[in-house]
Amino acid sequence: MTQSIATISLVVPDYDEAIAYYIAVLGFVLCEDRAVAPGKRWVTVAPPGGQGPRLLLARAANETQASRIGDQTGGRVFLFLHTDDFRRDHATYLARGVMFVGEPRTESYGTVAVFRDRYGNLWDLIEPTDAADA
Predict the structure, then answer these.
(1) Which pLDDT score is estimated for 52?
(2) 21 shares a domain with 57
(3) How far, in Å, CA of 6 to CA of 2, rounded?
(4) Structural domains of the chain, count
């Protein structure tokens, strides 16, 4: 049996605002944007050249969902963005106003820095070492 995680839902307040952020600031590509019901869209984005899961930008449908925006994991890092060039992406993100929580550091698995997206979700930007990638 072969299985994989194809899509991860990320609760956002507004489709178009989220699309603009993930494309213009993080450099993601828009994969899909289609209506599925009145007022509801299926919107997915992914890092360029990415081979992993897509992010489903899911507009909060009620107050309970809206209360989870930016804190879907209770304050832990939620998403892990691998890069082939940490310094390039770190500098680009800083120039685009991305807020990093701390300074870049070298760990056994690679070079990493934690950043906060527009909504408050914590991400690791990681350039994995060859061993960590394997």
Answers:
(1) 87
(2) yes
(3) 12
(4) 2
Which domain, by its residues, includes 31? 1-69
Q: Where are the alpha helices (DSSP H) in 14-133?
A: 15-20, 63-66, 86-95, 130-133
The strand ranges marked E within 3-90 are: 7-12, 29-37, 40-46, 54-59, 77-82
Q: What is the pLDDT of residues 107-116, one digit of tens each?
A: 999 999 999 9
C-alpha torsion angle, residues 12, 69, 107, 89 (rounded to 10): 30
User: Can you give the pTM of this predicted structure?
Assistant: 0.91
- pLDDT tens digits along 26-36: 999 999 999 99
Whether the CA torsion 71, 109, 47, 7 is positive or negative: it is negative
Pairing, β 105-107 against β 99-100: unpaired
> Among the three residues 39, 69, 99, which one is the final residue of a domain in this structure?
69
CATH of the domain at 16: 3.10.180.10
84-120 residue pLDDT tens = 999 999 999 999 999 999 999 999 999 999 999 999 9
Q: Do 111 and 59 share a structural domain?
A: no
Based on the fold, state whether residues 53 and 98 are members of the same structural domain: no
Closest C-alpha among 8, 10, 7 to residue 121: 10
